[in-house]
Amino acid sequence: MNTKKYNTLNNFYEKANALRLDNLYKEAVQNYLNAILIDRNNAESYFGLGVCYKNLKQYSKAIKYLDMATQIKEDYYDAFFELGICHQLEGENCGAIKNFIRAIQINPENPNAILQLGISHELCEEYDLALMIYQKLIENSPGFLKAYEQKSTLLMKLNRYRDALEILNLLIKRNPEYYKAYAGLGVCFEKLGKFSTAQRYYRKFLTLKPFSSQTEFVKDRFKELVNRKFDNKHLKIL
């Protein structure tokens, strides 16, 4: 490739990357396409284009271009990982599992692909397999807190609240500021009929995180338990 052509390619590619990082995905797409017109063997351009289409929720296009990136560069961890995510978002869990496995083969030390592999099996309702993957992840990467959260959430979904409590307590030991764990503990204790303890954990959550996507849910549960306690006292007086 001559110098002028290389510089033009680089200009389009660098501009596309900058636009993508600024979340200007439509603008980035055109620049990645221009870069690809100059060099059809640039895996990074296909990868960037695929990520843009993923963020634009055009998952079939994202899969197409990410797959091209992996064909050019067979050990492209990020491309296989993003392919797995796009297949998940398309509801194609077999495709997701295949790509996450390939990402893990390329970089077995990165826990993110392992976590997503577990999530893919969970979405296939292969719960025992998902739980096994989360547990192995906890054992092999004890500092990777998302694995504790994901396992405890699945255990709660399966109504295994005592088992979920064990995982959530391990999570809090690792990081006492992990606010989502306190919401989970509150739910578990409430389901087990230990309402005062549930209130305590709901209160702890609200202290740590007064504004979050879970806050309204936790406030509602806390108020419900306060009202339940008030009603019980009222009945005793009567």
Compute the CA-based radius of gyration.
23 Å
Tell me the structural class: mainly alpha
Please name the CATH topology of the domain at 143-238: Serine Threonine Protein Phosphatase 5, Tetratricopeptide repeat
Give the name of the CATH superfamily of the domain at 143-238: Tetratricopeptide repeat domain
In CATH's first tier, which class of the domain at 143-238 applies? Mainly Alpha
| Mass-distribution shape | elongated
SS strand fraction: under 5%
How does this model look, in words?
The chain is an all-alpha fold and 238 residues long. The protein has helices at residues 3-21, 25-38, 43-55, 59-72, 77-89, 93-106, 111-123, 127-140, 145-157, 161-174, 179-191, 195-208, 215-237. Helix 2 (25-38) runs antiparallel to helix 3, helix 3 packs antiparallel against helix 4 (59-72) and helix 4 packs antiparallel against helix 5 (77-89).
Task: For this entry, give a set of tags.
238 residues, mainly alpha, Serine Threonine Protein Phosphatase 5, Tetratricopeptide repeat, 13 helices, disordered C terminus
In short:
With 238 residues, the chain is mainly α. It contains 13 helices and no strands.
